[in-house]
Amino acid sequence: MYNPKSTTATEFISDSEIRSTMEYARENCGNMQLVESVLAKAAQAKGISHREAALLLECNDPTVTERIFKLANEIKHRFYGNRIVMFAPLYLSNYCVNGCVYCPYHAKNKTIHRKKLTQDEIRAEVIALQDMGHKRLALEAGEHPLMNPIEYILESINTIYSIKHKNGAIRRVNVNIAATTVENYRRLRDAGIGTYILFQETYNKDNYEALHPTGPKKDYAWHTEAMDRAMQGGIDDVGIGVLFGLETYRYDFVGLLMHAEHLEATYGVGPHTISVPRLCKADDVDTADFKNAVPDDIFYKIVAITRIAVPYTGMIISTRESAKSRARLLELGVSQISGGSRTSVGGYVNEETPEENSSQFDIADHRSLDEVVGWLLDLGHIPSFCTACYREGRTGDRFMTLLKNGQISNCCLPNALITLKEYIRDYASPATREKAESMIKRLLSDVPNDRVRSRAVEYLSKIDNGERDFRF
Ligand code: SAM
C-alpha cells in the first residue's frame, strides 16, 4: 500500500505506485490540456507531484521541452540566484565488504589498489584541498566495519575541521558513507557534519537486490530507510540521489521524487540536495554490461523537471559529467558542482599511477578548481564557497524557510561575494581574479537591503586587508 508518510521502505517507495505513475504518464502525455495545467502549476514555483513530473518527462513535444528548460532556469534563479556552490570529494578509504556490481570497490575486485588514509595522510590531503581554495568537502568511503568503522570516520572529521593551513579552512564536511544506525547518525551530527548524503542507486527493489548480491548493502529496506534514521538521529540536511544507468530512468525518476515527497510529508523538510550521477566506466566495471544508460537529451530533461518538482532543493553535479554537459546542466537547475576532484584515495597529494589505481570511477571533467571557477565566471555564474547557513544553524526547515521567503539576495548573495573574494585573494590566478573582481563590483548593487550592502562592502575591504571568515 502506497503511503508517503509511512517509514517502511516498500510503502513510501511503492512499486505499484511507480508502475501506475509510469502508465498514467504514458497514457496521458498526449493530453495537451493536462500538460498545460501541469506547466501552469509548475510556473507557480511551489513544486509538482511525482505523477505530474512523470507526465512532463513522457511528453515529447519539443515546444513543451523548451518551456520546461526555460522554467527550470527561472526557478533556479528565483531561489538560488546565479550562485553555484563549490565542493570537492575526499576519498578516505576504498576498503569495502559489499558486492555492488557497478562499483569498483566491490569486495571481489582483486585489481583495484586498496588504500585507507591515516590521519596524517588526511591532513596532507586537506592541506592540498585548502591550497586549492576549497572550503566544503564530501567525505567518501567504502563500507567496511573493520577497516572503516564509524570511529574512523568521526576521527577523520575531527582531523579535517582542526586543520588551519595559511588562510585555509574546511568549514563544512558533508558525509557520503553507507547506511548506518540512528545512534551512529547522532554521532555524525554531534561531529558537526553538514549534509548526510546517500545515493539509493536504484529504487527498484528486485533490481537493487540483483545489483547488490552480497554485503550489508544488499538489504533494500535498511538502505532505503537510511534517511529516516538519519532524521531520527537529528541530521536534518540529507542528500538523496540515484545512480542513473542502473535501472530505467523512468522508474528511478519517479522513485527519487517519491523519496523527496516522503521526507517532506514525514519530517516537514524535503531533501537538502539531490544528486544525479550517471554510471561511469571504472576498474572491473564495464558500462556496456548495463543497458539503461541515459542519453544526454533525456538526462537534461530529468534535471530540469527535478528542479521544477522540488524548487527548494539543491542539485548537485559532479565531475562524472563533462564540462560541456555541466554547462548545460547549470542552466537547468544545478546549484552545486565539484571542481578539481580526485576520486582516488590520497589523490590530491599523489597523482594516481596505473600500478596503484584506487579510483572509484573515471571522471570527465579534469580541470583545476581555478579553471572551473574562471569558467563559471565566464558563463555568468557566481562561484560560491559559502558555508554560512549551516554554521549559523540555518539547517533543515530553517534553511528552507529562508529560501522560500526569497531571502537569498540579502543573505546568500553577499555571502557568495564575500567567499569568492576570499578565494581570489588567496588562491586564484590573475585572470580569474580579474573576472571575479568585476563580478563582485557589479553584483554588490543587487543586494537590496542597504544595511546588508554596506556591511558587505566593509567585509570586502577587510578581506583585502587580510581578515577572513565573515558571514551573514
Ligand atoms: N559506501 C557508500 C555507500 O554505499 O553509499 C558510499 C559510496 S560511493 C563512495 C559513492 C557513490 O558513488 C555510490 O553511492 C554510487 O552511486 C557511486 N558510484 C559507484 N560506482 C560508480 C560508477 N561506476 N560510476 C559512477 N558512480 C558510481
Give your account of this protein's structure:
With 472 residues, the chain is α/β, with parallel strands linked by helices. The chain has 3 domains: 10-76, no CATH class; 80-384, Aldolase class I (TIM Barrel); 409-464, no CATH class. Helix content is 47%, strand content 9%. The protein is built from 20 helices and 9 strands. Strands 1, 2, 3, 4, 5, 6, 7, 8 and 9 form a 9-stranded parallel sheet that branches. Helix 2 crosses helix 12 (249-267). The relative contact order is 0.13. The mean pLDDT is 96. Residues 102-103, 140, 142-143, 176-178, 198-199, 201, 217, 243, 277, 279-280, 282, 285, 320, 360-361 line the site of S-adenosylmethionine.
Note the main attributes of this structure.
TIM Barrel; nine-stranded parallel sheet; 47% helix; alpha/beta; single chain; 20 helices; binds S-adenosylmethionine; 9 strands; 472 residues
How would you summarize this macromolecular structure in one to three sentences?
With 472 residues, the chain is an alpha/beta fold.
Any chance you could write out the topology, listing elements then pairs?
Blueprint: H1 9-12, H2 15-28, H3 32-43, H4 50-58, H5 62-80, E1 83-93, H6 119-132, E2 136-141, H7 150-162, E3 172-176, H8 182-190, E4 196-197, H9 205-211, H10 220-224, H11 226-232, E5 238-241, H12 249-267, E6 273-275, H13 296-309, E7 314-317, H14 323-331, E8 336-338, H15 369-378, E9 382-384, H16 388-391, H17 396-404, H18 412-426, H19 430-444, H20 450-464
Bound molecules: S-adenosylmethionine.
